[in-house]
Structures are given as structure tokens and as C-alpha cells.
Design goal:
- The chain is an alpha+beta fold.
- The strands form four sheets. Strands 2, 4, 7, 8, 9, 10 and 12 form a seven-stranded antiparallel sheet that branches. The chain has a two-stranded antiparallel sheet with strand order 1-13. Strands 3-11 form a two-stranded antiparallel ribbon.
- About 6% of the residues have low confidence.
Length: 195
Amino acid sequence: HSSELARKIAASAPVSVPPSPRFAMVTIPAGTRLQLELQSAVGSDTSAVEQPVKAALRAPVTMDGRVALPAGSAVMGIVTDVERSGRVKGRARVAYRFNSVRAAGENYDIQTSAISHLAPATKASDAKKIAIGAGAGAAVGALLGGGDGAAKGAAIGGAGGTGVVLATRGEEVHVGPGADITTTLTAPVTVRVPL
């Protein structure tokens, strides 16, 4: 009985509660750079507007010697613009921005500048395709009639080369997980930091 009585007394004894941790509110100003590692794949031909985008902080954000946002904090956003490569003009692009960060178990709304990736220009290779078309046309024109036949052939061949370029889409742009990206806060954010 005495062991049962001891157990009842132990069960009814007040549990010592550790003092609650103290926090400071720290404001991270607009203009602060966030170095991120992309964790989602985005692409001009694979992403859609409003598609979620995930990243993680590569480096901590410190304010007054305190870590306000630790490295590894999850950053979430959305795709804001997608443009596939055009046949006639326009390079492919994909843009996104971040709107929340999770740090020390808390979610915070943030506003960042947009990050935009643009496909490389293909003008040089397009010019080569047109020139090859013109050269082939001139050779055919020279074979057929020589003289002004060569000039007409070059014009027709050049137009043919242009047709090939216009019928071909340029390169799409893709950015995958692990990409090193940087964005900037466009509005301040206040976070709780343990003391």
C-alpha cells in the first residue's frame, strides 16, 4: 500500500514548469538580401502562374548580432509570370517571388522582389541559319542560270532560311533545385528571436 500511496502523491505533486523562453521582436528592413537555394524546378515550358516555388535560406539573416532568420529556413513563393519561347520574337522567361518564410517554428509573411530567368538569345545562330539559306540559294541560282539567277536564288534562299528560323522556337529556360538565387525584401518583416 505504501508504494501505491507514494505513487498517488507523486502523481498529484505539481509539475515544475520551466520558465517560458524570452523573445525579442526584431524587424528586418526592406532592402535586405536573401541568399536562397532553390528547391523547386521552374521552367518556361513547364511552370504555370501561381505554381508554388520552394527555397531555403543559404545564409542566416542577422540583425544587431542576433540571428533573425537561420540558414535553412524554408521560403515559399509562387510563379508570377511564364513566357514560352516565341517563334517570331520573344525569349522564354519565368519569374517568381517569395511571400512567406518559416523560421524557428513560426510562419511570417514576406514580400520580395521578383526573380526572373531569361533564355539566352539565339540571334547569332538564327543569323547563321539565314546566311546558310542565302548561300545555298545563291549556289542553286548560279547552277540554274548564273548572273542575276544567283542573286534571285540568294534572295529566295535567304527567305527560306528566315522561314526555318521563324518556324523554330528558341531555347526554353529551366532552373532546377540547388540553384543559387538572391532576392531582396521589398517590405520590412518583424520576427520573434529567442533571447
